[in-house]
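Appendix B. Chain record.
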Amino acid sequence: MATQRPGRRPVSVYALAGVRLFNGVTGLLTPALLIRRLDPDREPLSPAAVYAFRLFGIRTILLGLDLLTNRGQRLQEDLREGVLIHGSDTVTAAMLGVRGQLPPRTAALTTVISATNTVLAASATTSLANSARGKRK
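Structure tokens predicted for this chain:
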């Protein structure tokens, strides 16, 4: 049975890190782009929304970098936390759609994106756990 080299991450870790980095940079540097996708009819843009996207943008960048730099137990903890983070995002997006607080297409898209991130985090968690078990045998 082949084992992974030390430091090697499942593809799902890189995919999730890429999503986090893209969304984080976009939220930090161009929050208006994301705000208009969620609330296309509001002009001028809410300063609170700009603040929130920038606030979460930098945090999302740091979470993405953690996936690329942390190893071992810390990486496993990051991924387990990611399941909770993205699961919460998924429920929030779905509820906004159900309540009519987002346009149906936007609600569906954000729910699918968040659910995909949840699956990536769960898949990576499982892959790393299986890899760790294989190394202990």
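Further analysis of this model is presented in Appendix C.
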